[in-house]
Amino acid sequence: MTRSEPLSMRPIRGVAVDQGSGLARMLRQARGAKAGKGDLLLFKRLVAEQLSPEASTLLVDANYGRELLPSIAPGCESMLAYEADVYRIADEDRMTVLPEDLRIADYPGLGVRVLKFFLYFAPNDPAPINAQKFERVRRIGAECREHGITFLFEPIVYDRAVPDEDGAEFARLKPRLVTEATRLFAAPEFGIDILKVQIPLNLSHVEGFGTPTMTRPEAAAALRHAAEAAGDIPLLYLSAGVTFERFESSLKLAVESGAGFAGFMCGRAIWNDAIAIFGNDGPTAAEAWLADEGRRRLARLSEAVA
């Protein structure tokens, strides 16, 4: 019996636990004097063990991925990030650092069929910087095709002129930035199979959710327009560190708007509250929280996109 194509079932219900040094820092702060070297791997393993049985796919990082893959439940597609550490970003070009001890050619031998690559991207950055980024994505896409690996690409948009990404000015720019990045990387030359993108609006600036710079009909139109830019490439929405309630509401608004998307990838919005429990009450309490509230949150997100 042949295995189906990776992530062919819809909607895709993805859990991400590929965070690196940032998550390690939060765990150290939460644990205080009880902090240990193995805390980051242990926390990631608890997330994988408790949430992968209910997820379509679970994303792990290049540093700990080999150790975490056995913790992913059968029936949940393993996804491995092709990045050294998403927080190691150069100030000027914001180019993602590639892992030193992992090659795309290694993925089949690890039993991993899906690669995720993350990149900061500004459509209006200087042309030489974006040319380097385009070339890197092309090369990764070509290597994925060569080795039969599904390529999931995650462009995170920014604008150098508007550094406050929570403010009203960036909220007005965000639909255009996400739409343009989606349109550019949907081109066949990049060999991308799935796009993982930001929801193209900040709910805190949408009518009915916060101080509005955008009406609800305008938000719905922005969602549809940005999704259409992907063409035939499946689109996943990422949670981008917002609260669980905000992400759930964003997914519901996307469904209500008629935006065509294939599912979600969610990390901190599901499991962030387990960090404090891990720190204060220990790994066993965090595991129990993930098995209860963590799974409940994943189920609610799944219901939102069903």
In DSSP terms (H or I, runs of 4 or more residues), the helix count works out at: 11
Structural class designation: alpha/beta
Distance between termini? 28 Å
For the largest sheet, list the strands in their spatial order: 1-2-3-4-5-6-7-8
The description of the largest β-sheet is: 8 strands, parallel, barrel
Q: Specify the helix fraction band.
A: 40-55%
Shape: globular
Give me the count of strands. Answer: 8
Radius of gyration: 19 Å
Q: Roughly what fraction of the amino acids lie in strands?
A: 5-15%
Low-confidence stretches: none
Average pLDDT metric: 95
Q: Helices and strands, in N-to-C order? A: EHHEHEHEHEHEHEHEHHH
Topology, element by element:
Elements: E1 12-17, H1 21-31, H2 39-51, E2 57-60, H3 65-68, E3 77-81, H4 107-110, E4 114-121, H5 127-147, E5 150-157, H6 168-185, E6 194-198, H7 216-228, E7 235-238, H8 244-257, E8 263-266, H9 268-271, H10 273-281, H11 283-305
Parallel strand pairs: 1-2, 1-8, 2-3, 3-4, 4-5, 5-6, 6-7, 7-8
Helix pairs in contact: 1-10, 2-11, 6-7, 7-8, 8-11, 10-11
Describe the fold and architecture:
This protein is an alpha/beta fold and 306 residues long. Helix 1 packs across helix 10, helix 2 crosses helix 11 and helix 8 runs parallel beside helix 11. The longest helix has 23 residues. The chain is globular. 45% of the residues are buried. The mean pLDDT is 95.
